[in-house]
Design a protein that fits this description.
Layout lengths: L16 H55 L9 E5 L2 E5 L2 E3 L9 E12 L11 E2 L11 E5 L4 E5 L2 E3 L4 E3 L26 E13 L7 E6 L5 E4 L2 E10 L4 E2 L8 E12 L4 E6 L8
Parallel strand pairs: 1-7
Antiparallel strand pairs: 1-2, 3-4, 4-10, 5-9, 6-7, 6-10, 8-9, 10-11, 11-12, 13-14, 13-15, 15-16
């Protein structure tokens, strides 16, 4: 009798160890490619974000410099402002260019950003109290410039008397010490109706020591520097003179026609250099 026996051999063959290793290797390569693509896209997005931030930061910084420059010298133009440097005579210009020999320039300016009034009583000499029509906006610690259009003088307010509308400038401030303030008008001094401007001294410079990255800072009246922009490479200030020449080292400010601040920034891993700039013509020049 012929008996048919079902085969007990399993023809279905599984993966060999070599095949599994090849498959896993291919999967690993594919995963690495996917991760590389993903991280590459993330890095590109991060780079773009950093670059956009640097550009926006630079643009905002230049706009701030432009605003300050437009108001430099408002009320007295290019007249040298007579000051007392702790009793020694000196002057401040509406614009004081900083060093132009290094990588970065600095810039100081003196401008009107606040109140304006006029004398209600003649100011006979530099020691006399300044009495004005309105003390609105003037506070102790402020600076003011008094000018008749021929000469100009700067003082530091030490106290304000609201009843008498007087701006005191005692010698407790080094800006008011006797001995400075040259070329004060002869008697009767500054006459009734003379302009009195509340002013601010502003300075811009690149700080490479006090922050992790090179930083553009802005300083008012010698106070604490405020950060304006990070990732700064350098600040260049160019001056277009009335004779058409361009320089970073101007002579007399009366010869300046336009000011061109250029802020260079670096961003991202590539440290790509970018720049933002503008042309500024101060209103009073």
């Amino acid at each position: 009798m012929n008996l048919n026996h079902a085969s007990t051999r399993n023809d279905a063959r599984g993966f060999s160890l070599v095949e599994m290793m090849i498959t896993l290797s291919m999967l690993a390569v594919i995963m690495l490619m996917l991760y590389a693509t993903l991280f590459g896209a993330q890095n590109a997005a991060t780079e773009t974000t950093r670059r956009a931030y640097a550009r926006n930061s630079g643009r905002e910084a230049i706009q701030l410099i432009e605003r300050d420059l437009r108001m430099a010298g408002s009320g007295w133009g290019t007249l040298p402002v007579q000051i007392s440097n702790n009793g020694a005579a000196g002057t401040l210009g509406a614009i004081t260019p900083g060093p132009a020999s290094g990588q970065s320039d600095s810039l100081r300016m003196l401008g009107t950003f606040g109140s304006h009034s006029v004398l209600s009583t003649a100011m006979a000499n530099a020691a006399a109290t300044t009495t004005v029509d309105s003390i609105g906006g003037f506070n102790a610690g402020d600076f003011f410039v008094i000018t008749n259009g021929i000469v100009a003088h700067l003082f530091n307010v030490t106290s304000v008397n609201t009843g008498t509308r007087q701006l005191a400038h005692a010698t407790s401030s080094s800006w008011n010490v006797a001995g400075g303030h040259a070329q004060f008008p002869a008697a009767p001094g500054y006459r009734v109706g003379t302009d009195v401007y509340e002013v601010t001294q502003i300075a811009y410079r690149v700080d490479s020591l006090n922050y992790r990255r090179r930083t553009l800072v802005r300083q008012e009246n010698g106070g604490i520097p405020q950060i304006v922009a990070y990732g700064v490479d350098s600040l260049k200030i160019w001056y277009r003179m009335r004779d058409g020449s361009i320089t970073r080292s101007p002579g007399q400010i009366i010869d300046i026609r336009e000011i061109v601040p250029i802020l260079y920034t670096r961003s991202g891993k590539s440290a790509r250099l970018d720049s933002t700039w503008t042309y500024v013509h101060p209103r009073s020049f």
